[in-house]
């Protein structure tokens, strides 16, 4: 589905992502994990065309997309959500999904907002794509509501619908459970599983280790921009390099410790 070879980007002297080679399997959920600042969001920005890599190649469905612009990447079948919610709260849920369709498949936001002649002709197509996306994420009944009136989890679904409106084969989710309570997290996990059961491939970045361990089929671990481990959850959670990376990180050491212990059936260490 997706292969990156020697992928890297430097910001000044900082290698935010360095020499990452990996293959993301189709029809599965792949999680990108790693301590804060590991390069996870940057990795997403590279594969979705928001950043141009300094080194390496990105192959998506057999096509070299390394130099494509973001809307060309979208046209090739990949869509993403952002770490911070980027929905338009005063617009309706349906209008948000329509903007998702237009911005991602046409030239840009300005066109979408100004409703040029071409945009008007495309309105019905956008509306249909948007309604299909809302149905897929289970919020079609809320189409006419202002997006800002939805719950936090509902707003996440709007964000996912915006990405799905371009009908991608691969969906990238940056911290989908951020700001969610446990109940909402469970509900979002179920949604992600449903989407994958329907044929979508998902790559997600997530800090909540317990979530990743039970949700992902395949895990790729970044640390200081480099891939330090890859495999199924049980393998990765036992990998000494991963445990060390997380324990070395004050912010997330505890979370990884719990996840490791839970998946290994052990008592959490002190
Ligand atoms: N546009 C940028 N310019 C300069 N440095 C950046 C930029 N984006 C990310 N970085 C740096 O790259 C590193 C990785 O960041 P990021 O990918 O956001 O990490 P993560 O998502 O894993 O927490 C961090 O040190 C961050 O400060
Ligand atoms: Mg990030």
Automatic annotation (TrEMBL):
What residue stretches are annotated with the ABC transporter domain?
2-249
Cross-referenced PROSITE patterns: ABC_TRANSPORTER_2 (PS50893)
Q: Does the record carry Cell cycle as a key word?
A: no
- Tell me which GO cellular component terms the UniProt record holds: plasma membrane
Print the keywords alphabetically.
Answer: ATP-binding, Nucleotide-binding, Transport
Q: SUPFAM superfamilies attached here?
A: P-loop containing nucleoside triphosphate hydrolases
Stretches assigned to coiled coil: none
Q: What is this protein called?
A: Leucine/isoleucine/valine transporter ATP-binding subunit
What InterPro entries does this protein map onto? AAA+_ATPase, ABC_AA/LPS_Transport, ABC_transporter-like_ATP-bd, BCA_ABC_TP_C, P-loop_NTPase
The record, for CDD domains, names: ABC_Mj1267_LivG_branched
**According to the lineage, what is the superkingdom?**
Bacteria
Tell me one GO molecular function of this protein. ATP binding
Q: Which BP terms does GO give this entry? A: D-alanine transmembrane transport; L-alanine transport; L-isoleucine import across plasma membrane; L-valine import across plasma membrane
